[in-house]
Amino acid sequence: xxxxxxxxxxxxxxxxxxxxxxxxxxxxxxxxxxxxxxxxxxxxxxxxxxxxxxxxxxxxxxxxxxxxxxxxxxxxxxxxxxxxxxxxxxxxxxxxxxxxxxxxxxxxxxxxxxxxxxxxxxxxxxxxxxxxxxxxxxxxxxxxxxxxxxxxxxxxxxxxxxxxxxxxxxxxxxxxxxxxxxxxxxxxxxxxxxxxxxxxxxxxxxxxxxxxxxxxxxxxxxxxxxxxxxxxxxxxxxxxxxxxxxxxxxxxxxxxxxxxxxxxxxxxxxxxxxxxxxxxxxxxxxxxxxxxxxxxxxxxxxxxxxxxxxxxxxxxxxxxxxxxxxxxxxxxxxxxxxxxxxxxxx
Length: 346
Fold this sequence. Notes:
Blueprint: E1 4-6, H1 11-16, H2 26-42, H3 51-57, E2 72-80, E3 85-92, E4 99-105, H4 118-131, E5 134-139, H5 150-165, E6 175-185, H6 187-203, E7 213-219, H7 230-235, H8 244-254, E8 282-289, H9 293-305, E9 310-319, H10 329-345
Parallel strand pairs: 1-9, 4-5, 4-6, 6-7, 7-8, 8-9
Antiparallel strand pairs: 2-3, 3-5
């Protein structure tokens, strides 16, 4: 099978050329400075997270039964109160036909942010409106308090909850759980892979279920390994948001004690990667100004070599986390690509 390349050049060409400097609006640059500074202060050198400090800055967005300007409502649903597992559900006020469901996993290096963080609340509202889907944003447990595989366990359990209980009564529109998509960015993209692998590899309910994984959307997924890639070396300290040191810190916080970056949770980018027969069609989004881009292309290549349906979307001038900012042209293009993928995979 030949992997479909869209929206950019191939990996070798991207590897060979230096990326152009990002032409970012000054307000985006200011927000990025704040996000990066707060995140790095919160990530202690001891491997812990200063939760109280970060919570003071990361103020949660509230749910609202009243529709916003795009007709989107939100409500929280508890999945397992004993471990604080819940999800925020975004739904349009009306629909003429059953809508697909997008189960979303936020980024944040496995350690920061939540489904109620304002950037993710805003983004999921845009996805709900732009994709014509009900969005279920998962508030999984964070590392280092809850290391791998806690986040993967939480993702599978949210799917089981949807399969058995469906969506809350606050969702007034009809949905089609046979068109259920997983999506996530950065660490959330990593979670998408592992939840999809677990679900299709035997963790779905043994009894018949109406929930079917129709596709997986991995937006700048966070993968890694002990070796350094060309893009990590070329862009380290020169690109927004991600540095090698930050990535290494996140892996130490998330992976089991004593594991290195070749652990299967991080390193799913070579021929030894295990993929279930029923692994869903995947869309992998790569940014040309993201130091993680080589790992992401390698991951798409592995899916292709193992006979999976994979669509690689490249945005040459996209920084890591570009999708937070609706004023960036790549953000609207991403939503359009996601919508087309969901329509073709359903």
